[in-house]
C-alpha cells in the first residue's frame, strides 16, 4: 500500500482541480470566434448580425453571456461562438427584468 496515502491523494486532487479550472478557462477563451451567418446553426436560426427590430437584439436576449459593453459576446445557443450584440436570431427571448 506504499504510495496510497491521504497526503498523496490530496496532492493529486488539488493539482487536478487546478488543472481542470485553468484548462477550462483557457479553452473558453480560445474557443471563441465570431459567428458567421454561413454557419449551419446560424442559418437554421436565421441569425443576422444586425437585428431588423431595435428592441429585439442579442444584447437584451436571455441567452447572451459575457460582460456588458463588448460588441461580440458568447451566446448559449451558439457554443464556442461570439454573436454581435446588435444581432438577432429566431431563438431570441427577452431577458427578464
Task: List the keywords.
3-stranded mixed sheet, elongated, 97 residues, alpha+beta, 2 helices, High-Potential Iron-Sulfur Protein, Chain A, 13% strand, 2 domains
Layout of SSEs?
Elements: H1 6-30, E1 33-34, H2 40-44, E2 72-75, E3 78-84
Parallel strand pairs: 1-3
Antiparallel strand pairs: 2-3
Please describe what this structure looks like.
- This is High-potential iron-sulfur protein.
- Keywords: 4Fe-4S, Electron transport, Iron, Iron-sulfur, Metal-binding, Transport.
- InterPro entries: High_potential_FeS_prot, HIPIP_sf.
- Residues 29-97 form the High potential iron-sulfur proteins family profile domain.
- This protein has 2 helices and 3 strands, in the order αβαββ.
- By secondary structure, the protein is α+β, with helices and mostly antiparallel strands.
- It folds into 2 domains: 1-30; 32-97, High potential iron-sulphur protein (High-Potential Iron-Sulfur Protein, Chain A), CATH 4.10.490.
- The chain has a 3-stranded mixed β-sheet, with no helix packed on it.
- It is elongated.
- The mean pLDDT is 83.
Can you summarize this structure?
This protein is an alpha+beta fold. The chain folds into two domains: 1-30; 32-97, High potential iron-sulphur protein (High-Potential Iron-Sulfur Protein, Chain A, Irregular). It is built from two helices and three strands; from the N terminus they run αβαββ.
Amino acid at each position: 500500500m506504499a504510495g496510497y496515502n491521504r497526503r498523496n491523494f490530496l496532492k493529486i486532487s488539488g493539482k487536478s482541480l487546478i488543472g481542470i479550472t485553468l484548462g477550462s478557462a483557457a479553452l473558453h477563451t480560445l474557443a471563441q470566434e465570431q459567428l458567421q451567418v454561413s454557419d449551419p446553426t446560424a442559418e437554421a436560426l436565421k441569425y443576422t448580425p444586425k437585428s431588423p427590430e431595435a428592441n429585439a437584439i442579442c444584447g437584451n436576449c436571455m441567452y447572451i453571456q459575457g460582460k456588458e459593453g463588448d460588441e461580440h459576446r458568447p451566446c448559449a445557443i451558439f457554443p464556442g461562438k461570439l454573436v454581435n450584440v446588435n444581432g438577432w436570431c429566431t431563438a431570441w427571448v427577452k431577458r427578464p427584468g
